[in-house]
Design goal:
The chain is an all-alpha fold and about 425 residues long. The chain contains 14 helices and two strands, in the order αααααααααβααβααα. The chain folds into two domains: about 5-210, A middle domain of Talin 1; about 215-420, I/LWEQ domain.
Length: about 425
């Protein structure tokens, strides 16, 4: 052994120590990023803040977010994860520079997100209209997406990369240590998997940021529709009780718990089906044949309500299906009024009506051609919403009456109490 070998090993160990320490610092730093948004001083210096914010969003989409992928890719190549660090010795000197570049681009990205997410100042922005991509609702979602990328994924990637380096160092010192090598393989696989997920989320965030307000809403409505479909499937299974006749409307004290659950499921199915029809109507549009567009002057609050209304209705219906399924599994008589979440179900009619009101106000029907066989329904979709109200409210009343009144619960008093909360 030459005199220089111990020095080389010591030098390598020092480089590994510094790299793992820096990766640990970055992991901690970006776990807590974007928790609070403060208004950067640069915003005050913008001649036209709306124009300035749009430029920042453009920079996020075209430069900053793609640069994160580029820097992380270079860093992972330096670690040589695919070959378990066979070339890592030769790359150790580049790691400090790469981690510094990663930190710089993440800091710039964080600052940019803060710039577009901070509250506007000035009376010209007070009504939240004509803000386009800079609406508070959109920027809040953008901030949440970038925060998730950094705190949930990149922070873990830094930590696992540091662990990989530590086990690589152990294997280098003791090549016969099979346990250390196995742990190194695990950390390499985990880091690669996290990186793949991170890259996918970055691409999705860039794509999402370029979408229209309507397209973003329709994403949320599609998620709500999936929940409604799941609730319908569960309720259909629960309703399959041949001992309960289809014409039997009232509850019978002699009913078994499962008979009651089956009856309640049958009464819940119509409202679930109507909700699915409604969501399908407002969601299933294509760029080639759109039914409508959204008023570009819609404000942030209305956007948020249009997102939350269908989402909350779907959540309540999903809750009913899960509640009945749990009671059925226990063979217990359903008493939903005892559940502290049950009062929220009474908000379903109000949520539906307020959503329809907003849709009628902000949706703009698009012109159709004479050869379009669906032109009538497209031109009169607002009327379709109007005609849906009566059967929807009737089905909701029947469902809620069955869920609450049949158990000797005062639905009217609960409704009054809920309206004043």
């Amino acid at each position: 052994m030459s005199d220089s070998e111990p020095e080389d090993k010591a030098d390598t160990s020092l480089k590994i120590y510094k790299a793992t320490r820096e990766l640990g610092r970055l992991s901690i730093l970006y776990q807590i990023v974007l928790r609070r948004i403060s208004r950067p001083t640069e915003n005050d210096a913008m001649v036209d803040e709306l124009v300035g914010r749009n430029e920042v969003i453009d920079k996020l989409e075209s430069i900053l977010l793609p640069s994160i992928k580029d820097r992380i890719t270079s860093f992972l190549l330096a670690l040589d994860l695919q070959n378990l660090g066979k070339q890592l010795d030769a790359n150790l000197d580049s790691i400090p520079e790469l981690t510094s570049e990663i930190n710089q681009i993440l800091a710039k990205t964080t600052h940019a997100v803060e710039s577009v997410s901070a509250p506007f100042e000035g009376s010209e922005y007070s009504d939240g209209r004509n803000l386009g991509r800079c609406k508070e609702y959109r920027c809040r979602l953008l901030c949440a997406k970038v925060k998730d990328i950094m705190s949930e994924h990149l922070a873990r990637l830094f930590a696992r990369s540091g662990h990989f380096l530590e086990y690589w160092e152990l294997s280098r010192k003791d090549p016969g240590d099979s346990w250390g090598r196995q742990e190194m393989v695990k950390r390499a696989e985990t880091a690669s998997r996290i990186a793949d997920t991170t890259f996918r989320l970055i691409d999705q965030t860039i794509e999402w940021s370029k979408k229209s307000d309507l397209a973003i809403l329709q994403e949320h409505w599609s998620e709500a529709e999936e929940k409604v479909n799941g609730a319908l499937e569960d309720l259909t299974q629960l309703a399959a009780d041949p001992s309960i006749g289809s014409g039997q409307a009232a509850m019978d004290d002699e009913m078994t718990p499962r008979n009651r659950i089956s009856r309640l499921a049958r009464l819940s199915i119509p409202i679930v089906k109507l909700t699915r029809i409604f969501l399908n109507k407002i969601t299933k549009t294509t760029p080639k044949k759109p039914l409508f567009t959204l008023d570009p002057e819609i404000n942030s609050k209305s956007l948020e309500l249009l997102s939350e209304g269908p989402t909350n209705i779907a959540r309540h219906l999903e809750y009913i299906a899960k509640f009945l399924a749990e009671q059925n599994q226990r063979n217990a008589r359903p008493n939903i009024a005892r559940d502290h979440n049950s009062s929220e179900l009474l908000q379903i009619p109000k949520l539906f009506q307020s959503t329809l009101l907003l849709l009628s106000f902000y949706l703009i029907p698009l012109p159709t051609t004479a050869v379009d066989h669906h032109s009538v329904s497209r031109q009169h979709f607002k009327s379709w919403f109007h005609y849906l109200v009566s059967p929807y409210l009737e089905a909701t009343d029947r469902m809620l009456d069955a869920l609450f009144d049949s158990q000797g619960f005062d639905l009217q008093n609960l409704s009054l109490l809920t309206n004043h909360v």
